[in-house]
Specification:
six-stranded mixed beta sheet, three-stranded antiparallel beta sheet, Immunoglobulin-like, 4 domains, about 45% helix, 4 helices, about 290 residues, alpha+beta
Amino acid sequence: MFHFGSKLLLLFLLAFPCGLLSIGHVSADAAEDVVDDHDVAVDEEEEDDEDEVLVEEDQMQATEGGGDEEADEGEEKPLSSHPDADTTIIFTTGEEFPTNEIVKFLVGFTNKGSQDFIVQSLEASFRYPQDFQFYIQNFTALALNTVVKPQAQASFEYSFMPAQPMAGRPFGLVILLNYISAEGGAFQTAIYNQTVTITEPEEGLDGETMFMYIFLGGLVVLMLFGIYQVLESRTKKRLPVKIEKGTGGMSDVDISWIPQETLNVMNKASPRASPRKRANRAAGADQ
């Protein structure tokens, strides 16, 4: 019995550590499984978050793309001319553009197609020569609203006046004709699109020129008056001085025409003033 009990005790002592090791190994495996499951769950959550972020980014990109498309659609596309429309232009006042003078031109429109065209308006403007997108002077558009039948022609007259401060400088002249077809399409033809020079009017006098002429005329008159004064003063200095001798020589005086009574009265009133005595005294002095 003692030997059997000692064997059981020995077997228990040997089996107990093995059981502990197996239990620890199982616990470690279980813990690793739990950790793995947790990591898997975390990874799945991260993947879900990443998927959500990607979905949101895709939605944002799609929204931005749609906004860009809408913006592109909202922007006005430049109008072009119709192949069945032919236009010509003639400047009736010449191809010079003086300031403060009316410039007139005629625009011819020919419908070479098989559908009607409605000519809506005609407009002109001066642009910056380096960049035609910048307006310098924009003129009022001329409303036409004229229907041109197929194989028909129409002409329109337009006039404008360049401003005075634009004289002597080049500008881009743009003349546009707007029209629509019977189908509703809008078209635009640039009839004239060139750089021109604004000139000053050749005839007539402006205020500055008149003031300059008046000033020059006054200056010339002043110079002539000064020259006249100088010459007159020099002439007076050169003239001889006349010396009056008085009335000492009475011998040549004829007093015979004076009545004797008058002479007697004069002698009595003032003997010194008697003309006869003065004559005699003058004669004695001469002798």
